[in-house]
Design brief:
Elements (H helix, E strand, L loop, with lengths): L1 H33 L2 H7 L1 H8 L6 E13 L2 E11 L7 E10 L2 E11 L10 E11 L8 E2 L19 H10 L7 H6 L2 E12 L4 E7 L5 E7 L2
Antiparallel strand pairs: 1-2, 1-8, 2-3, 4-5, 4-7, 5-6, 8-9
Length: 226
């Protein structure tokens, strides 16, 4: 009889244990889901390592005019925009075409600038996220999307690959929330989070190479399209 009771108790423990497993995973999921961008920056060693390993970038993309036509007195410029890889300026990781009224084109990027405490070689580095392209006759809101807001740019996918996908999504969708929190910016050694818009009057036969300065400013270098 005692042996039978022992077997019953063991069976109960097994059943209860099996029932609790999903809740344990659910709790873990809720925990990760509840993490904030502040916690990720402060506690996640993989994210810290990714930021620490940022290296200096000089070229982050380029644009070239494919066609310029005038219809009913209105000029339209068709451009090809290419985003290049972090470690290989000849490697294309994104390529899109846009037709925009006029010949003055704006290129909009979001910049997250880290201080020298967060980066491996002790020098300031930044993340660059292309946002949109628009012409003078458009509002910024009407601009063409380059990278979908809140999604991870392909140029950084290898750098952040050690993070679980949900944490990567949280980082990219919430990083801008820190822009107006001076205390958190200082705490995480982020010098600034801001937008940088550059524009130029584009002409066919030229390539506009977007480069970044050591201070985090984006600017176009114009070279002939050979």
């Amino acid at each position: 009889m005692a042996e039978k009771r022992k077997k019953i108790r063991l069976l109960v423990y097994i059943v209860v244990g099996i029932c609790l497993v999903p809740f344990a995973y659910l709790g873990r999921g809720l925990y990760y889901g509840a993490k904030t961008i502040h916690e990720l920056l402060a506690e996640n060693k993989h994210l810290k390592q990714a930021i620490t390993n940022l290296t200096r970038e000089e070229q982050i993309g380029y644009a070239k005019v494919i066609a310029q036509e005038t219809t009913d007195g209105r000029m339209f410029t068709t451009i090809k925009f290419i985003e290049t890889a972090r470690d290989d300026k000849l490697k294309k990781i994104l390529e899109k075409e846009y037709t925009i009224e006029g010949d003055i084109i704006h290129f909009d990027a979001l910049i997250v600038k880290f201080g020298n405490k967060m980066v491996m070689d002790g020098k300031t580095r930044a993340l660059y996220l292309w946002r949109r392209i628009y012409g003078e006759k458009m509002t910024p809101e009407e601009g063409f999307i380059i990278e979908q807001p809140g999604t991870e740019p392909q140029r950084y996918s290898d750098l952040f690959k050690a993070l679980p996908i949900k944490q990567r999504q949280m980082f990219w969708s919430n990083i801008w929330d820190l822009a107006n929190d001076p205390e958190k910016l200082k705490q995480h050694d982020i010098e600034a989070i801001y937008g940088n818009v550059v524009y130029s009057r584009l002409r066919k036969g030229l390539i506009y190479i977007f480069k970044v300065s050591p201070t985090g400013q984006v600017y176009p270098e114009v070279v002939p399209d050979m």
